[in-house]
């Protein structure tokens, strides 16, 4: 499958012009650029369009069509790129706890990556929406690690790892995971649920996110939030379909499809929130 992956097109898409070598500095550069240029977005499940996870479909949508996607699409695309560059990569699964109690029993609905570099394990994840990592994390416990945005750390809890971010002076858990390797069929089952089940928030609400050098942008339905590092979050309502399309195109850099389905949904969201 790696022979079918166009690494040069992916590098051009994210603006990376360095070497394709399995080194830490390569991983860090790719991990910083990917979420700046390829947005987290859920237009396909919101419109009841399919979300295929094969390599050709991922490249067509996220690279050639200049769209975004959610965790499976982002991290599978990154996995293909890293493997094509010579990295040893494994897919993992996590239970999302962001905005949920620490002891909540949640399904394994999130994908992240384990990357082995020079006998050390690193965690990579470019698909966690508004709080996605902008740098890989070394798999060490209880040690805050700097990223281009917030500090993160990995804690141990009942045999699992918990990924936490320091937000406004408090450590908050994003998700829990272990190191059991997952394969594509594992992700396809959960991907179908997230993109089809009527209770999935991906089919009910418009979600988009992108990072910048010192900012995080997040969209939930028609509310745009701009998180500037060290500053108060700015929020505003988007009140028309044309403005909403502009925000998706300009702020999130998504090539929004031209479709009556899209226009109808954007109008509905802008009018009703």
Description:
- The protein has helices at 7-14, 24-37, 43-46, 55-64, 71-84, 184-196, 241-251, 260-272; strands at residues 40-41, 88-96, 108-117, 120-124, 137-138, 152-157, 160-167, 170-177, 207-211, 215-220, 223-228, 234-237.
- The protein has 8 helices and 12 strands.
- Helix 4 (55-64) crosses helix 5 and helix 7 (241-251) packs across helix 8.
- It is globular.
- The protein has a domain at 199-272: Arylamine N-acetyltransferase fold (2-Layer Sandwich), CATH 3.30.2140.10.
- With 273 residues, it is of the alpha+beta class.
Q: What keywords describe this structure?
A:
single chain; 273 residues; alpha+beta; Arylamine N-acetyltransferase fold; seven-stranded antiparallel β-sheet; five-stranded antiparallel β-sheet; 12 strands; globular
* Strand line-up across the major sheet: 5-4-3-2-8-7-6
Order of helices and strands: HHEHHHEEEEEEEHEEEEHH
The poorly predicted ranges are: none
**Approximate shape:** globular
What's the oligomerization state?
single chain
Fourth-level CATH superfamily of the domain at 199-272 = Arylamine N-acetyltransferase
Layout: helices, strands, pairs:
Blueprint lengths: L6 H8 L9 H14 L2 E2 L1 H4 L8 H10 L6 H14 L3 E9 L11 E10 L2 E5 L12 E2 L13 E6 L2 E8 L2 E8 L6 H13 L10 E5 L3 E6 L2 E6 L5 E4 L3 H11 L8 H13 L1
Antiparallel strand pairs: 1-9, 2-3, 2-8, 3-4, 4-5, 6-7, 7-8, 9-10, 10-11, 11-12
Give a short synopsis of this structure:
It contains eight helices and twelve strands. It has 273 residues and is of the alpha+beta class.
């Amino acid at each position: 499958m790696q022979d079918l992956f166009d690494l040069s097109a992916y590098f051009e898409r994210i603006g990376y012009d360095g070497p394709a070598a399995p080194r830490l500095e390569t991983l860090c550069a790719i991990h910083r650029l990917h979420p700046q240029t390829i947005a987290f977005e859920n237009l396909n499940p919101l419109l009841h369009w399919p979300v295929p996870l094969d390599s050709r479909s991922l490249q067509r949508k996220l690279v050639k069509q200049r769209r975004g996607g959610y965790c499976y699409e982002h991290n599978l695309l990154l996995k293909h790129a890293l493997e094509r560059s010579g990295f040893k990569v494994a897919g993992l699964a996590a239970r999302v706890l962001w905005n949920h109690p620490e002891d909540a029993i949640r399904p394994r609905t999130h994908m992240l990556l384990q990357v082995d570099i020079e006998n050390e394990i690193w965690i990579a994840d470019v698909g966690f929406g508004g709080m996605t990592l902008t740098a890989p994390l070394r798999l060490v416990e209880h040690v805050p690690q700097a990223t281009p945005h917030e500090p993160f750390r990995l804690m141990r809890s009942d045999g699992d790892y918990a990924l936490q971010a320091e937000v406004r002076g408090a450590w908050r858990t994003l998700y829990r995971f272990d190191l059991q390797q997952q394969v594509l069929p594992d992700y396809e089952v959960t991907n179908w649920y997230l993109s089809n089940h009527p209770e999935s928030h991906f089919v009910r609400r418009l979600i988009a996110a992108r990072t910048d050098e010192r900012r995080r942008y997040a969209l939930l339905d028609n509310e745009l939030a701009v998180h500037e590092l060290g500053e108060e979050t700015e929020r505003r309502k988007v009140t028309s379909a044309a403005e909403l399309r502009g925000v998706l195109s300009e702020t999130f850099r998504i090539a929004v499809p031209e479709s009556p389905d899209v226009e109808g949904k954007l109008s509905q969201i802008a009018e009703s929130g």
